[in-house]
Specification:
This protein is an alpha+beta fold. It has helices at residues 2-15, 68-104, 109-141, 190-195, and strands at 23-31, 34-37, 43-48, 55-56, 61-65, 144-146, 151-155, 163-164, 174-178, 181-189, 201-206, 209-218, 231-239, 249-254.
Length: 255
């Protein structure tokens, strides 16, 4: 009789104490980072080197914009900068000579001041030309769209031959999602939210495959502040080289 009573009490206590047991919460897999890469310049798309589903590495070439006009502008800016650099060298040498002559009293103050003004004019012109050259060089880099990190190609909304406008917000060239790192998003009641801490080790189950994960963030505000039993969003990060589509159902086993 004592043994039976002990079993019943144990069962009741365990049944009424979910906090001391491992909890499994349903959730959804999301991208850890998703970016829409647009064009920093206006022009015609000459090539798109990737397609949806491709895995790309950081620095891989994704797409290209016509460079012809940009290369012309760069060549012109480089030529102008070289011309002013040479003129600046001559004006600096002339100023140095006139400075010595002025100190010796061999030239008038007006002539020395003229050489000062001419040197200042050329210095300003060279500075502007140098800035134009840097701008032209930078714009050339915008003609090539590179992957900012290892990622899966989610979408390529633009085809070769299409015209794109600089910084057009609603029309990216390539959409990427970071590979290797995923987020499992779950919603938990207050009792679990208070129990969890950032960096808590958990297990993420996608299908029957378990992945080690860690709690990243626990929201301070509930999903619905008017709910009688508030629930709080929790982000769990986990890693795998496998492609897991955003929106995939998962389960998170909490300690």
């Amino acid at each position: 009789m004592k043994n039976i009573l002990y079993s019943v009490v144990t069962f009741v206590l365990v049944g009424l104490s979910p906090v001391v047991m491992a909890d499994i919460v349903n959730g959804q897999v999301q991208w850890n980072q998703r970016v829409e890469l647009g064009s920093g310049i206006t022009g015609r798309v000459t090539a798109v080197h990737v397609k949806a589903g491709d895995l790309v590495a950081s620095g891989d070439l994704l797409a290209e914009i016509d460079r012809q006009l940009l290369e012309i502008r760069f060549s012109k800016a480089a030529s102008t900068e070289r011309r002013y650099a040479a003129e600046l060298f001559d004006r600096q040498a002339e100023f140095d000579r006139n400075e010595i002559l002025f100190e010796e009293g061999s030239i008038a103050a007006m002539e020395f001041q003229r050489s000062q003004l001419e040197l200042t004019r050329i210095e300003t012109a060279h500075a502007i030309a140098s800035a134009d050259l840097r701008k032209a060089k930078y714009q050339l880099t915008l003609a090539t769209i590179l992957a900012p990190f290892h990622a899966w190609v989610v979408e390529t909304p633009v085809d070769p031959g299409e015209f794109v406008v600089a910084d057009e917000p609603d029309r990216p060239l390539v959409v990427l999602a970071q590979s290797g790192i995923y987020v499992a998003r779950i919603v938990v009641p207050l009792v679990l939210a208070e129990r969890l801490r950032p960096a808590t080790d958990v297990t993420v189950l996608v299908g029957d495959t378990p992945y080690p994960g860690q709690v990243s963030t626990i929201a301070l505000e509930p999903v619905d502040s008017a709910a009688a039993m508030p629930e709080y969003p929790v982000r769990v990060t986990f890693q795998t080289d496998r492609l897991i589509r955003s929106g995939t159902h998962c389960r998170v086993q909490l300690p």
